C-alpha cells in the first residue's frame, strides 16, 4: 500500500548558478541569494491499495516523475507524508549504470547488483534475460557495439527480473519494435496479475486505459482528476483540446 | 507557472519506507560490483594498465631520492626505504580522496534513478583505490624484505594499514560532502594535497625537527600513521600509547566524515 498525504515539493532554481566555493566567496557582496521557486507538486494526496495498478498521466513538467522519485526515496518532500509499507522496486530509467566498455554479460551482472541480486541469483537468470532481450548471440559483445534498441531491450529484460511487491514504472513500455512491445505488454499484464502494486507513469494513454485500475491526472503539480482510467483520460484530452484552442 | 503562487508552509515531512530484505548483503554486493567495475575500467583489464599506476609513485620516488641524496643529502638512515614508505602510503591517500570526491559527481546519474545509501558510492570508490594500494603494498613489503630482510615487527603492520584506510575514507567522506556543494573542490583539494605532502613527514623525519615545530606536525594524523609504518618496518620500535592514539585519531576522523556525509546524503540527488 502507498499512502501519500498533502505532498509538496518545491525546487529552488537559483538565478545564478553558484556551485563553486569561488563563486560563493566572491558574490556575498551582491546581496541575498536569489532563486526562483518551482512548485513541482502541490498538496498531492492519494492512496494505492495493495494489488492495484494506478496510472499517472499529465503533460511534461506536471510533476509525474518527481512524484515517483519521492515515493522511491530519491527526492525529499518539502512537506507532507509518504508511507510505503512494502519493498519498492523503482524503475525510472532503463539501463542505468550500464558500462559501454563491458560485455553484455558483465553488464547484466552489474545492473543486477543495483537491483539487489547477488551474482549467483543473476547466474540463474542470465539465460532468461538474454532470451527475453533476444541477445543470446551477443552475450559477449561489447555493449558499445549494440544498437540503441538492443540496449533498451537489454535494460528492460534485466529490469523485469525485479520481484519487489511494489513497482514504480516511468515510461518503460515504449521500448523496441512492435514485436518486442507486444512481449512487454504481456509481461506487464502478468506482473499485474501476480498481485503487485504498480504505479505507472506514461504518455501512452492506450496502455493506461488497458492496464490500470485507476488513473491520476496531474497538472502543474496538482491532482485535477482521479478515478476510472477512461474518465480521467477523457478529462485529459479535453484539457489538451481546450489549451489548443485557447 | 500558470496557477497562482501559494506559499507552501514547510512542515516536517516524513517518508516511511520499508527497507529491502537482506539489506546489508545487498549493499555490500553493490559496493563490490561498483569497485570491481571501476578497477577494471581504470586498468582496462590488463596487467600493463596496472603497471602504469605503479609508475607514478616510482617516478616520484626516483625524483625525491635524487633530490635528497644528491642535491640536499639527507642524514636519515635507510633513506630509500624511509622515503618509499612515505610515498607509497601517501599515494593511496591522494588517489583515494581524489577519486572518492569525483565519484560523487560521476555516479550522480545512478543516484537520481536508484535508491541506495549514498555512502555506497564513496565506499565503492575507496574500494577501487584500496585494491591497487594493497597490490602496491605487497610490492613495497617485497622491496623491504629484499633490502633489509624480514623486520621482526612486521606482524603489527595491519595496524597502520587499517588506520590509514580508515582515516583516508573518513577524509573522502568529508570531501565528497563538500564536493556536492562546491564543484571546484577538485582544484582546491589539489592545492591542499601539495601542502599536505610537504607538511607530512614523507621526505623528512619529524623527530629531527625541534620539538616546538614537531608538535605541530604531530597534529596531522598522517604523521602518526607514517610513524607507525616506520616503527614496524624500519626501526623495530613499539610504543603502545603512540599506536593507541593513532587508532583513536583515525577512527574519530572516519566517524566525523561519515556522520557529516550521512547527514547530507538525502540532499545529494537534488544537488546534481
Give a structural overview.
The complex is a heterodimer of chains A (246) and B (272). Chain A is α/β, with parallel strands linked by helices and 246 residues long. In chain A, 37% of the residues lie in helices and 26% in strands. Chain A folds into 2 domains: 168 residues, P-loop containing nucleotide triphosphate hydrolases (Rossmann fold), CATH 3.40.50; 68 residues, Helicase, Ruva Protein, domain 3 (Orthogonal Bundle), CATH 1.10.8. In chain A, the strands form 2 sheets. Chain A has a 6-stranded mixed sheet, with helices on both faces. The longest helix of chain A is centred in the last third of the chain and has 17 residues. Chain A is globular. The two termini of chain A are 40 Å apart. Chain B is mainly α and 272 residues long. Chain B has one domain. Helices cover 74% and strands 1% of the residues of chain B. The longest helix of chain B has 30 residues. Strand 4 of chain A pairs parallel with strand 1 of chain B, so a sheet runs across the interface.
Please state the structural category of chain B. mainly alpha
- What percent strand of chain A? 25-35%
Mean pLDDT figure of chain A: 86
Distance between the termini of chain A: 40 Å
Q: Give the number of helices of chain B.
A: 11
- What characterizes the major β-sheet of chain A? 6 strands, mixed
The domain count of chain B comes to 1
Radius of gyration of chain A, CA atoms, in whole angstroms:
21 Å
Name the overall outline of chain B. globular
Amino acid at each position: 500500500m502507498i499512502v501519500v498525504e498533502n505532498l509538496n515539493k518545491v525546487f529552488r532554481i537559483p538565478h545564478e548558478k553558484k556551485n563553486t566555493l569561488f563563486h560563493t566567496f566572491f558574490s556575498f557582496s551582491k546581496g541575498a541569494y536569489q532563486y526562483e521557486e518551482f512548485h513541482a507538486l502541490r498538496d498531492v494526496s492519494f492512496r494505492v491499495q495493495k494489488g492495484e495498478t494506478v496510472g499517472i498521466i499529465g503533460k511534461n513538467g506536471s510533476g509525474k516523475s518527481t512524484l515517483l522519485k519521492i515515493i522511491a526515496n530519491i527526492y525529499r518532500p518539502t512537506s507532507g507524508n509518504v508511507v510505503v509499507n512494502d519493498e519498492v522496486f523503482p524503475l525510472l530509467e532503463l539501463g542505468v549504470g550500464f558500462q559501454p566498455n563491458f560485455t553484455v554479460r558483465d553488464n547484466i551482472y552489474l545492473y543486477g547488483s543495483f537491483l539487489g541480486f547477488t551474482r549467483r541469483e543473476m547466474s540463474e537468470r542470465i539465460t532468461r534475460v538474454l532470451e527475453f532481450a533476444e541477445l543470446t548471440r551477443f552475450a559477449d559483445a561489447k555493449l558499445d557495439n549494440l544498437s540503441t534498441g538492443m540496449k533498451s531491450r537489454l535494460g528492460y529484460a534485466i529490469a523485469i527480473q525485479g520481484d519487489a511487491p511494489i513497482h514504480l514504472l516511468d515510461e518503460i513500455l515504449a521500448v523496441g519494435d512492435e514485436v518486442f512491445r507486444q512481449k512487454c505488454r504481456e509481461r506487464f499484464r502478468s506482473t499485474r496479475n501476480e498481485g503487485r502494486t504498480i504505479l505507472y507513469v506514461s504518455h501512452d494513454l492506450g496502455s493506461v486505459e488497458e492496464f490500470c485500475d485507476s488513473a491520476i491526472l496531474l497538472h502543474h503539480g496538482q491532482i485535477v482528476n482521479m478515478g476510472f482510467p477512461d474518465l480521467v483520460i477523457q478529462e485529459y484530452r479535453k484539457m489538451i483540446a481546450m489549451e489548443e484552442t485557447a | 507557472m500558470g496557477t497562482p503562487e501559494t506559499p507552501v508552509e514547510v512542515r516536517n515531512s516524513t517518508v516511511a519506507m520499508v527497507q529491502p530484505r537482506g539489506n546489508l548483503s545487498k549493499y555490500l554486493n553493490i559496493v563490490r560490483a561498483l569497485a570491481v567495475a571501476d578497477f577494471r575500467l581504470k586498468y582496462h583489464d590488463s596487467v600493463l594498465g596496472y603497471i602504469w599506476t605503479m609508475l607514478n609513485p616510482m617516478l616520484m620516488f626516483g625524483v625525491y631520492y635524487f633530490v635528497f641524496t644528491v642535491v640536499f643529502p639527507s642524514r636519515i638512515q635507510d633513506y630509500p626505504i624511509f622515503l618509499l614508505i612515505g610515498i607509497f602510503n601517501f599515494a593511496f591517500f591522494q588517489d583515494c580522496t581524489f577519486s572518492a570526491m569525483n565519484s560523487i559527481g560521476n555516479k550522480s546519474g545512478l543516484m537520481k534513478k536508484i535508491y541506495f545509501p549514498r555512502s555506497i558510492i564513496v565506499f565503492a570508490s575507496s574500494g577501487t583505490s584500496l585494491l591497487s594500494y594493497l597490490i602496491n603494498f605487497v610490492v613495497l613489503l617485497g622491496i623491504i624484505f629484499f633490502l633489509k630482510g624480514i623486520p621482526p615487527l612486521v606482524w603489527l603492520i595491519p595496524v597502520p594499514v587499517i588506520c590509514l584506510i580508515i582515516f583516508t575514507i573518513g577524509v573522502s567522506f568529508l570531501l565528497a560532502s563538500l564536493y556536492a556543494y562546491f564543484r571546484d573542490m577538485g582544484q582546491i583539494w589539489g592545492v591542499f594535497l601539495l601542502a599536505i605532502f610537504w607538511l607530512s613527514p614523507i621526505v623528512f623525519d619529524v623527530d629531527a625537527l625541534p620539538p616546538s615545530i614537531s608538535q605541530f606536525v604531530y597534529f596531522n594524523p598522517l604523521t602518526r600513521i607514517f610513524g607507525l609504518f616506520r616503527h614496524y618496518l624500519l626501526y623495530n620500535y613499539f610504543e603502545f600509547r603512540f599506536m593507541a592514539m593513532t587508532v583513536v585519531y583515525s577512527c574519530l576522523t572516519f566517524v566525523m566524515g561519515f556522520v557529516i556525509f550521512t547527514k547530507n546524503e538525502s540532499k545529494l540527488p537534488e544537488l546534481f
